[in-house]
Design goal:
By secondary structure, the chain is an alpha/beta fold. The protein folds into two domains: 182 residues, 3-Layer(aba) Sandwich (Rossmann fold); 127 residues, Beta Barrel (OB fold (Dihydrolipoamide Acetyltransferase, E2P)), CATH 2.40.50.140. The chain is built from eight helices and 15 strands. The chain has a seven-stranded parallel sheet. Strands 9-10-12-14-13 form a five-stranded mixed β-barrel. A hairpin with an 8-residue loop joins β9 and β10. The relative contact order is 0.11. The model has no long low-confidence stretch (mean pLDDT 91).
Length: 319
């Protein structure tokens, strides 16, 4: 008989990075939370805590745990018997080691449902400079990272790049000092848009593809070099193919092959799904929509060169 899973959410980040506010304003507002009581385990006390009336109205029981060693199997089972929660939220201590914590022998009924992290953007550069290892330890297992309170002068690229290198699957958003999400722009791109040839690292492919799909004019006439699998769908002309990568947008269930069609001056011979490092020029072709008759500009690559390459250690990249 299958053991009923109690979803457990872990909120990580340094002290006063906005973890409690994230729980109240974001996590507790999600439709996918279970209907029923929530056990809220507070592992450090910041300046802000959930108001007592709010906890009462939302059926939240708050307890404290000030040492990671208290999380024994017996202790965790006792929490289930004592509070019978529909879900558990652990506001993690910013000075604890998350990897060591995740290795603990938790009850089989505890199901890790997500790890969410908050970062104080106003101190981000100092954290990266002076506490990099401890700081990043809180983020490298995260599913979702919110960098809040970002000043306009903050260079967001180094942090995004460092996070993606250590945790490619993490989604990251930046919020301004006004609390509004900062829209992704050229200044957030992890590569030099004005280089003679834009060199894409593996972790950058998903970012490039999504940005080029949404803002194709930004790349028109630019040369791009990247590692890709070559694929030719049935019926495609011999001088055309699709260089692309398997991309995961959110979870393993949504992995798909993404790439722009590439056109060569001559017939191209290769084994489907073989790996190559390609250099191509980004262009826009006019194409008539067969349904509406409207002429649209669609992205296409102009083949320049390619050489065989070994498959990467991680064949799937993320957005």
């Amino acid at each position: 008989m299958a053991v009923k899973q109690i979803p457990v959410y872990i909120i990580t980040g340094q002290l006063d990075s906005g973890k409690t506010s994230f729980v109240k304003d974001t996590l507790m507002e999600q439709d996918w939370l279970e209907n029923g009581p929530t056990l809220y385990v507070l592992c450090e006390e910041g300046e802000y805590e959930l108001p007592e009336l709010y906890r009462k109205n939302r059926r939240i029981t708050q307890i404290t745990a000030d040492d990671p060693e208290v999380f024994t199997t017996q202790y965790c089972e006792d929490l289930l018997r004592t509070y019978s929660p529909s879900q558990i939220i652990i506001e993690f201590n910013g000075m604890w080691n998350l990897q060591d914590f995740l290795k603990k022998d938790f009850p089989k009924s505890w199901g890790l449902a997500g790890i969410y992290s908050t970062v104080d953007g106003s101190s981000l550069e100092l954290l990266m400079m002076n506490m990099r290892n401890l700081f990043m330890n809180q983020l490298i297992e995260s599913d979702f990272v919110v960098v809040n309170r970002c000043p306009q002068s903050l260079n967001r690229v180094p942090f995004r790049k460092a996070l993606k290198l250590q945790n490619p699957g993490a989604q990251v958003i930046f919020e301004g000092e006004d609390g509004k999400i900062i829209e992704f722009g050229e200044e957030d791109l992890p590569y030099d848009l004005n280089a003679p040839v834009i060199e894409l690292e593996d972790v950058d492919y998903g970012t490039w593809y999504a940005d080029a799909f949404e803002s194709p004019e930004r790349y028109k006439g630019k040369k791009i070099r990247f590692l890709a699998q070559f694929f030719r769908p049935f019926g495609m002309a011999k001088n055309m193919f699709v260089p692309g990568r398997l991309v995961m947008a959110c979870c393993a269930a949504d992995i798909k092959f993404y790439g722009f069609p590439c056109k060569s001056d001559k017939s191209m011979r290769f084994e489907n799904k073989s790996w190559h490092r390609i250099t191509a020029e980004f262009a826009l072709d006019k194409k008539r929509d067969p349904r509406t008759g409207q002429i649209d500009a669609v992205p296409v690559l102009r083949f320049i060169s390619a050489e065989d390459a070994p498959a990467p250690a991680e064949e799937v990249v993320t957005l």
